[in-house]
Design brief:
The chain has 417 residues and is mostly helical. The protein has helices spanning 9-23, 35-48, 55-70, 81-103, 111-146, 153-157, 199-210, 237-253, 257-266, 273-298, 305-308, 317-333, 337-353, 363-369, 382-392, 396-403, 409-415; strands spanning 168-171, 175-181, 189-193, 214-220, 223-224, 229-232. Helix 8 packs across helix 9. Residues 1-22, 24-34 and 305-311 have low confidence and may be disordered.
């Protein structure tokens, strides 16, 4: 299917205006707090102000650029964009590691030669970003259309607007600060930070915030549902496809009952961890199916990914993380906060010994990753329930239409009766 961009000019502008209004609330700090919480928020704002990501400013800049592109001549996308870009991403990562090792005196090498190759590959990939964005947009859009999933307005007015107004921006996504109480695992604040933060800055902020008897963590994001959707440019093609599909689906969900409640949760207006988990899990289920459709059509080599992975030592990371999460919950349920934190640090070192490095393992880590019910760090039954509902649905569209009208966990349980 050949995608005609001119057919999407008007719908894209409409969706953009709606997205600015709705999605901007995703990154707002919590509101409606009692007096002690207002004091905490005031101090939190003071600590984080220099690092905050200006969503409104970025949206205006990005959208103005996108509008300009609509009226610019479109060049043909070269056939070798992906075959050049993705191998270069892997080489860039290796070069960065080699350069860091040489600078640290851990290995020998010609620093000038390594840095010259790194600069050349980075410049080459920077020139390929725009055509790669258009290629991935088209492929993911076609996959959604093939599943009869269009613009969110299609659900209301039955108007299929030439495929979803899916738009991505490849680059370094912002970071996310997650704050959880120490005595339980629950996200109480989330603040989006500027891209490219140093580890030193992350740890400085975390130390200041933790002094208020909470647990905090600055996490790296692979994507974020701004408009255009931010997607990392330092991943393989399967990850980019899944992320592009997932972030668009968050935009789709924002115009449904289920997704709008998540907007309220993210804005701190109506906190609901189950709603957050349902949204993230639905987005994960749908986006993995869409990503797999595109991958099989355009990128599969005929060999199983599992067959290409190293056998490894047999260490089961997912199993370990589930056991860690269960143990931490047991400690916290008994009020043994310090013991839980000591246990998490011991396990963090144990995971590192087995090749899995986690910078910081704490309550905020589990609060963030636990919202994804298909993650090994989640103990929520929501993931199993949603996967069962998907299994019973005749199509991806039917599954999506069923869940988007839900406003609570109890409706999900009732749908399986």
């Amino acid at each position: 299917m050949t995608f005609q961009r001119t057919k999407l000019i008007k719908p894209r502008v409409i969706f953009t205006l709606l997205a600015v209004v709705v999605l901007s609330s995703f990154l707002l700090p919590a509101a409606g707090c009692a007096a002690p919480e207002r004091d905490f928020d005031a101090r939190l704002h003071e600590i984080t102000e220099p690092y905050r990501f200006n969503l409104a400013g970025w949206e205006l800049q990005a959208i103005s650029g996108e509008i300009g592109k609509l009226f610019s001549p479109r060049e043909e996308i070269a056939d070798n964009v992906t075959s050049v870009f993705f191998p270069s991403v892997e080489r860039i990562k290796r070069l960065e590691s080699e350069i860091a090792a040489v600078k640290a005196g851990k290995r020998q090498g010609d620093l000038a030669v390594l840095e010259d190759e790194l600069g050349r590959l980075q410049s080459q990939n920077a020139e390929l970003l725009e055509p790669l964005e258009r290629l991935l947009e088209t492929q993911v859009r076609e996959a959604y259309s093939g599943q009869d999933i269009y613009n969110p307005l299609d659900r209301i007015f039955n108007i299929k607007i030439g495929g979803p107004p899916l738009n991505i921006h490849l680059g370094t996504p912002p970071h996310l600060l997650v704050i959880s109480p120490r005595d339980r695992i629950e996200s109480m604040r989330e603040i989006t930070f500027l891209p490219g933060m140093s580890v030193e800055d992350m740890e400085k902020i975390e130390a200041e915030i933790d002094s208020f008897d909470v647990s905090s963590l600055v996490v790296n994001l692979g994507g974020i549902a701004t408009y255009p959707s931010y997607v990392t440019d330092r991943a393989d093609v399967r990850f980019m496809l899944n992320t592009a599909a997932e972030e668009w689906l968050h935009q789709y969900l924002a115009f449904t009952p289920l997704g709008f409640l998540y907007v309220l949760d993210l804005a701190g207006i109506r906190r609901d961890y189950d709603i957050a988990t349902m949204n993230e899990t639905v987005a994960g289920i749908v986006s993995k199916e869409i990503g797999a459709i595109v991958y099989e059509q355009y990128y599969a080599t005929g060999e199983s990914d599992d067959a290409n992975r190293a056998a490894g030592s047999g260490f089961d990371f997912n199993k370990e993380m589930r056991e860690i999460r269960k143990a931490v919950d047991e400690y916290l349920a008994k009020g043994e906060i310090e013991q839980a934190e000591e246990f998490m640090e011991e396990k963090r070192l144990y995971l590192a010994e087995n090749g899995y490095y986690i910078r910081k393992l704490n309550q905020a880590y589990f609060a963030f990753h636990g919202a994804y019910a298909d993650s090994p760090t989640s103990i929520s039954p929501i993931g199993d329930e949603l996967r069962e509902l998907r299994k019973r649905s005749a199509s991806l569209r039917e599954f999506l239409d069923t869940v988007v009208g839900m406003t609570g966990r109890e409706e999900l349980a009732e749908s399986l009766q």
